Every structure is written in structure tokens, then in C-alpha cells.
């Protein structure tokens, strides 16, 4: 049995599926700049920051902008994204997540958020999950994005737990890499074909339990 004293969760794609809203808002930006991109390309945007995402998308469209224009477009995209986020409800929490977090609590395991998003608190509020977390580290706190381990190392520190006693839950390749770079175990949430560096991969939290966590 391994000792697990804290679980660190990515937000987008792990707690809730906001990727569809990010995709919609980024696509609107691309369309206004007269190009388009696919859902397949959108996979590459998972886990990376807003400005890094914008750079990739502009590259796909062959569009070059000044720094000021980039900031203006990123701000527009975020507003479109927030219009969608404001309509979110607790029904959008991914299956099995609340029960798993409750059982972590009951077993004295700390819970932290480690997300690249600058909107994480608003999203957690909309889905009524804010109270589950002992610590929240997000895009507002970090200087280095995933795959750098900073976000998770800060989460470990905020919960007072050694990285080796933390388990990270991630749906993005860059996020799994960040966990491993931080010396933590990683549970991939999604497809084993994509999250090849994770210690284990689950497709949903339904059926996952603290017992299974401790057997990792
Ligand atoms: C990550 C998402 O969680 O947050 C990325 O996977 C997103 O797609 C990033 O770009 C930043 O989010 P936000 O909400 O600050 O634009
Ligand atoms: Mg994610």
C-alpha cells in the first residue's frame, strides 16, 4: 500500500468538461480571423495557458498579430468563454467526482486544485465545488505552465504534504508530465492511448475508490 496524503486535481477535463466551451470560444476567435481548426487540433490546447493556446491557434491560421492585438483577442476569447461558464450548473460536474472527493475527506486525505486556468474559482463556484478544496493553485499563482511541475509543487506545499505522498489527477499529457516531473504519481483521466506516461488511467471517477488509490 502506498501512502497518499494529498490528491491534486486538474480542473478542466477532470472535475468538469470545460474543454467544449474553450473550443467554442477559440473557434469563434479563429472564425473571426477567417480560419478554422479541428477538434483534433483542440487536443493540443488542453492544459496549456491562454496565451500559449492563442500562439498555437494563430500559428495554425498563419496569422501574425502585435502583442497588443494578441492581448485584445485573448481578452475577447475569455469574455466569450465566460459567457458560457456563467451558464454552468452543478449538473456539469463529471460523474463520480463528488463522491470520490467526499471519500478522500473521510479518509483524511487533503484535496488541492492545480489548474492552468485563471477562471478556476469562478468555475468551482458555478458548479458548487469550491468547499471541497483545502488549497487552490491556478493560473493566477504560477509563473511556469505545465509540463513544468510548479503548479503541483505549490499545491503540495499548500497542503503541507511531500510530493512523494501526492497523487495528481490529469486529463492532459502536459499535466501528467508536470506531475511526474514533480516526483508525484499520476492518474490519467481519459484514454490510455494518449496518457501513456500516467501510472494508471481511468476513463471516469465512477468505480474509482480510495482503496484503488492506495493500491497504486
Ligand atoms: C487549462 C485548460 O485548464 O486552462 C486550457 O486545459 C486553458 O485549455 C487553460 O487554456 C487556461 O484557462 P483560462 O480559463 O485561464 O483561459
Ligand atoms: Mg485539463
TrEMBL record:
InterPro entries cross-referenced by the UniProt entry: B-phosphoglucomutase_hydrolase, Beta-PGM, HAD-like_sf, HAD-like_SPP, HAD-SF_hydro_IA, HAD_sf, PGP-like_dom2
EC number: 5.4.2.6
Superkingdom of the organism of origin: Bacteria
Keyword Isomerase (UniProt): yes
Enzyme kind, highest EC tier: isomerase
Record keywords: Isomerase
Keyword Amino-acid biosynthesis appears in the UniProt entry: no
Similarity comment: Belongs to the HAD-like hydrolase superfamily. CbbY/CbbZ/Gph/YieH family.
Protein name, UniProt field: Beta-phosphoglucomutase
Lineage: Bacteria, Pseudomonadati, Bacteroidota, Cytophagia, Cytophagales
Protein encoded by which gene: pgmB
Amino acid at each position: 500500500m502506498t501512502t497518499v496524503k494529498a490528491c491534486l486535481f486538474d480542473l478542466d477535463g477532470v472535475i468538469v468538461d470545460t474543454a467544449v466551451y474553450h473550443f467554442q470560444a477559440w473557434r469563434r476567435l479563429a472564425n473571426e480571423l477567417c480560419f478554422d481548426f479541428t477538434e483534433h487540433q483542440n487536443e493540443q490546447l488542453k492544459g496549456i495557458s491562454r496565451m500559449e493556446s492563442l500562439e498555437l491557434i494563430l500559428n495554425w491560421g498563419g496569422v501574425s498579430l502585435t502583442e497588443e492585438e494578441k492581448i485584445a483577442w485573448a481578452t475577447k476569447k475569455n469574455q466569450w468563454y465566460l459567457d458560457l461558464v456563467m451558464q454552468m450548473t452543478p449538473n456539469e460536474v463529471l460523474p463520480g467526482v463528488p463522491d470520490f472527493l467526499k471519500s478522500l475527506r473521510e479518509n483524511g486525505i487533503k484535496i488541492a486544485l492545480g489548474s492552468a486556468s485563471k477562471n478556476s474559482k469562478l468555475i468551482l463556484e458555478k458548479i458548487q465545488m469550491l468547499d471541497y478544496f483545502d488549497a487552490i493553485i491556478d493560473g493566477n499563482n504560477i509563473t511556469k505552465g505545465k509540463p513544468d511541475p510548479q503548479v503541483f509543487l505549490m499545491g503540495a506545499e499548500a497542503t503541507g504534504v511531500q510530493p512523494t505522498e501526492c497523487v495528481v489527477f490529469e486529463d492532459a499529457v502536459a499535466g501528467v508530465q508536470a506531475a511526474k516531473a514533480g516526483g508525484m504519481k499520476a492518474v490519467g483521466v481519459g484514454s490510455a492511448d494518449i496518457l501513456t506516461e500516467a501510472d494508471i488511467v481511468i476513463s471516469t471517477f465512477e468505480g474509482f475508490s480510495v482503496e484503488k488509490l492506495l493500491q497504486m
